[in-house]
User: What shape does this take?
Amino acid sequence: MDATAENMMNGEFFGQFIDWRAEHPSDDIMTELLRAEFEDETGTIRRLRRDELLVYISVVSGAGNETTTRLIGWAGKVLSEHPDQRRALASDPSLIPAAIEELLRFEPPAPHVARYVTRDVEYYGQRVPAGSVMMQLIGAANRDHRQFPPDGDVFDIRREARQHLTFSVGTHYCLGSALARLEGRIALEEILKRFPEWDVDLDEAKLSPTSTVRGWDTMPAVVGRVT
Ligand code: HEM
Assistant: This one.
């Protein structure tokens, strides 16, 4: 294992940067985090410890990188399978924000989240005892025909905008949802400007093997221009 991979494994990936930034403050988020004061669970007002900062930065960086890259991969696949809708986007980029929303719904990069159940609850006549672990299938909910009539399994960039679960709901709602949408829009705008036509070679494509996110590690594309 090389030094970078080892640093990532033991959570030290951002360690050197944190130490350097502590010595060289700037107007960036790391300086803000180093200076931020908060009341912890014991009622003490304090700053984040180095190990807490490392965890925080590793979570944000993982959550931000693992997901948006996969959104862009899904855009490549799904729009290759729906060339008419891709051409509509290329000729009218004002449709792109709605297309990103539909891509997020149709192929959520994080297709499930888990919860520890702290008290007995009942859902749809089924009792779930405290202490259980529940897995919520975002990918399935996002295709529910009742929420996305008449057929949630159909990809349609002109679909009426309705709440999907791709960024979860409640306390843990995705911190980076606005950034993710922005990244998706810019990526799609720039790709469509350069390559309005493409096909993907699904036989040579490989899905990522991770347990938390779903997307493409490789997906060879053949690009061309509208004639
Ligand atoms: C398409 C892109 C993205 C998807 C699909 C996505 C999905 C999610 C989901 C489903 C959750 C909730 C997890 C849960 O309920 O257990 C979540 C939380 C989170 N996301 Fe994202 N995310 C994306 C982009 C980003 C970006 C760009 C960032 C930051 C730069 C980010 C940072 C976070 C953080 C920090 C949390 C934890 C929030 C909390 O627990 O309070 N995400 N994301």
